[in-house]
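ARCHIVE CARD
CATEGORY: sequence design from structure
SOURCE FIELD: tokenized fold
FIELD CONTENT:
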């Protein structure tokens, strides 16, 4: 039996409070909606979604990179610049606070560092990170100074072509640290996320449309392992039917209300 709870004025549905209080191992699975209230565009929300303006296969794929690495590098630095100009929201801060007094693991699809900047430790960035570029040839992590994205004067445009830097070790092109469509997920991050979900009593699924696998399969893994699954999302998603409870609220509204009850 699953229940949908519409967001009522600052009330957390009691079954969600009860599950959170009873849980000793919690996993928070987050997607782009977690950062929406920080002003970071999601991918698939109508009108505002990044994929409305850009075609994922051109910008988030090995083919796109090979076709125009300057365009791809520029787009990812633009996204990094936007993150640098944004702040963690109350939802990020609530999860960080929760981690202070409970076993809360975060596995995120997000390539921003807003969970970390809110004070959280993140168990797994399963789609990589905007801030961990590496050499496309030898794989060495690139240590970039962020002057290209921090200087207020030069917020580059989303479609500005910027040549990627050369690897200091082998001369190859430094590439964005995000996982592209068609690429495999970082092994260690994926295993950590899957193991955490299998061992959890409670799994919160926050701000994801649940359309990109294998991450979208984690709520089903949680449920089959006996965890209570709670979705926090203003709308129905592809993973809603995997949730025992669906709380139609946002990350920055719902998470602080929930954590305040614990
Ligand atoms: N609070 C909670 N959820 C929200 C909020 C909010 N303030 N605003 C939007 N959402 C929800 C939307 O309803 C939607 O279900 O967040 C979800 C965002 O979905 P997507 O844009 O598809 O983002 P995500 O699910 O993270 O995408 C998965 O796709 O493009 C790839 O690799 C990229 O990691 C990304 C993956």
């Amino acid at each position: 039996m699953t229940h949908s709870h519409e967001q009522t004025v600052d009330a957390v549905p009691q079954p969600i409070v009860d599950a959170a209080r009873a849980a000793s191992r919690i996993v928070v699975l987050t997607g782009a909606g977690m950062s929406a209230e920080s002003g970071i565009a999601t991918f698939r929300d109508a009108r505002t979604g990044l994929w409305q303006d850009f075609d994922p296969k051109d910008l988030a794929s090995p083919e796109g990179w090979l076709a125009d690495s300057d365009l791809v590098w520029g787009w990812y630095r633009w996204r990094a610049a936007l993150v640098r100009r944004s702040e963690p929201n109350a939802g990020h801060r609530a999860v960080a606070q929760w981690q202070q007094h409970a076993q809360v693991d975060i596995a995120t699809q997000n390539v921003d560092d807003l969970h970390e900047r809110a004070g959280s430790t993140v168990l797994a960035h399963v789609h990589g990170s905007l801030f961990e570029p590496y050499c496309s040839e030898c794989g060495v992590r690139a240590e970039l100074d962020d002057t290209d994205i921090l200087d207020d004067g030069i917020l580059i445009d989303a479609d500005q072509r910027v040549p990627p830097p050369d690897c200091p070790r082998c001369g190859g092109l430094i590439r964005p640290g995000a996982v592209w469509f068609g690429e495999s997920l970082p092994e260690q991050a994926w295993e950590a996320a899957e193991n955490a979900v299998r061992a959890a009593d409670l799994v919160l699924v926050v701000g994801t449309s649940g359309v990109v696998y294998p991450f979208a399969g984690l709520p089903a893994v949680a449920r089959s392992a006996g965890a209570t699954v709670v979705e926090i999302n203003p709308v129905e998603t592809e993973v809603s039917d995997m949730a025992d409870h669906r709380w139609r609220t946002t990350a920055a509204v719902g998470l602080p209300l929930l954590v305040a009850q614990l």
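CARD ANNOTATION: Residues 31-33, 36-37, 42-45, 49, 56, 109, 127, 206-209, 211-212, 233-235, 237, 250-251 surround adenosine-5-diphosphoribose (CB under 6 Å). The chain has a mean pLDDT of 93.
SHELF: design records, drawer C
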